[in-house]
Amino acid sequence: MTDDIKHRIKYEPETGIFVWVDCKKKSLNGKNLGVYDKDGYLTAKINQIRYRLHRLAWFVCYGKWPSQQIDHINGIKDDNRLCNLRLANNSENNCNRPAQSNNLLGVRGVRFNNNRYQALICKDKKQIVLGSFKTLMEAQHAYQTAAKELHGDYRYVK
């Protein structure tokens, strides 16, 4: 069943774009495939099954479905170039995300507490307090230093 997928689409690893080559709806042949899902990922329905295109890219290029989650290195959910995709476990994938939408400062790992900026980071589901700082920049630097040490290449960089 999944081998049929490779014959129905064409994937360009350098651009991350998928094109229909043998769609049952002939008018779609030669056209890009993919619609956004509620989470902002591109998806396509092939043989009545919906696939996220970043996982489909992995399958097309490596001949097997990814054994883990697929992380978009640059954090852009619709950038499906092969050089932007890597395997990641749940913890690694979560490290490469921007600040939560409820973070009023808009800075990952920093909150305002008692008239100071507090830097925090999580590792192995445990929160680590990195310190309390006078400025947002100091707290942000403390978080980024710890993230580089604890999360390495999977840390969020922006």
Tally the structural domains: 2
Any low-confidence stretches, pLDDT <50, length ≥5? none
- CATH class descriptor name of the largest domain: Alpha Beta
Provide a count of the helices. Answer: 4
CATH architecture of the largest domain: Alpha-Beta Complex
Strand content: 25-35%
The major beta sheet can be summarized as: 3 strands, antiparallel
Order of H and E elements: HEEEEEHEEHEEEH
What is the CATH topology of the largest domain?
A: Homing Intron 3 (I-Ppo) Encoded Endonuclease, Chain A
Shape: elongated
Please state how the strands of the largest beta sheet are arranged side by side: 3-4-5
If you average the pLDDT, what whole number results?
A: 88
The structure class reads alpha+beta
Helix content: 10-25%
The total beta strand count reads 10
Radius of gyration: 20 Å
End-to-end CA span: 40 Å
Structure description:
- There is one protein chain.
- By secondary structure, the protein is α+β, with helices and mostly antiparallel strands.
- It folds into two domains: 2-88, Homing Intron 3 (I-Ppo) Encoded Endonuclease, Chain A (Alpha-Beta Complex), CATH 3.90.75.20; 99-154, GCC-box Binding Domain (2-Layer Sandwich).
- 25% of the residues lie in helices and 30% in strands.
- The chain is built from four helices and ten strands, in the order αβββββαββαβββα.
- It has helices spanning 2-8, 53-62, 90-95, 136-151; strands spanning 9-12, 17-20, 35-36, 42-46, 49-52, 69-72, 85-88, 110-113, 116-123, 126-133.
- The strands form four sheets. The chain has a three-stranded antiparallel β-sheet. It has a three-stranded antiparallel β-sheet with strand order 8-9-10, with helices on one face. It has a two-stranded antiparallel sheet with strand order 1-2.
- Strand 4 (42-46) and strand 5 form a beta hairpin.
- The protein starts with a helix and ends in a 7-residue tail after the last helix.
